[in-house]
Amino acid sequence: MATVKPRQRRTPRHEVRDRVLAAAARVFADRGFAAASIDEVAAAAGFTKGAVYSNFGSKDELFFALLDEQIATRTALVTELSADPPADPGDLVRAAGDRLTAAMAGNREWQLLFLEYWLRALRDEPTRRRFVEYRRELLTSLTSAVADLLGDAGITDPAPARELVLLAIGLSNGLALEELPAPGTVPAGLLGDALAAYLVRPRPAAR
Fold first, then answer.
1. What domain count does the chain have?
2. What is the distance between the alpha carbons of residues 6 and 4, in angstroms, rounded to a whole number?
3. Entry pTM
4. How does pLDDT run across 169-202, given as a tens digit for each residue?
């Protein structure tokens, strides 16, 4: 009597995607974005190259998916403050800045990858256009989230939310550059203090 082989379990698509993304993060960190190949990502994930391409059309698609994960994680760190926000708006943004600083300090590999891709976008026009459009959408989304958070603290003017998001992004990127070659350079409360000082500064009267 012929032996019936058990059917192999088909890996769910969401699991394939998650494993490919995790592998891409490791390979990009080890090899750099430019030097890494889809073949290496597939091998690290334990799948064929076809499995990678069935979920992501290119290395750039992998990068933007990883960027989505990073943004979602850091946005959650800030919006979680709405569950029990400090009464003072300055303390609120200071706490948000401290959380972002901790996330930056604990993720050196991502900072290296982001810096490499930033330089790639500056040198390649199609990549730059896509990167700029992505960041424009990101700014809109984050501004909405921060506006809701500030609204809970009694600040309803939408201008500070957009300004704070721009400042947080710019300072975070700059401080990350300082932190990369010399970990521990950036004081834990620096970003939060800067954001709080900007929020509570005297604003010029409208003309």
1. 2
2. 6
3. 0.82
4. 999 999 999 999 998 898 989 999 999 998 887 7
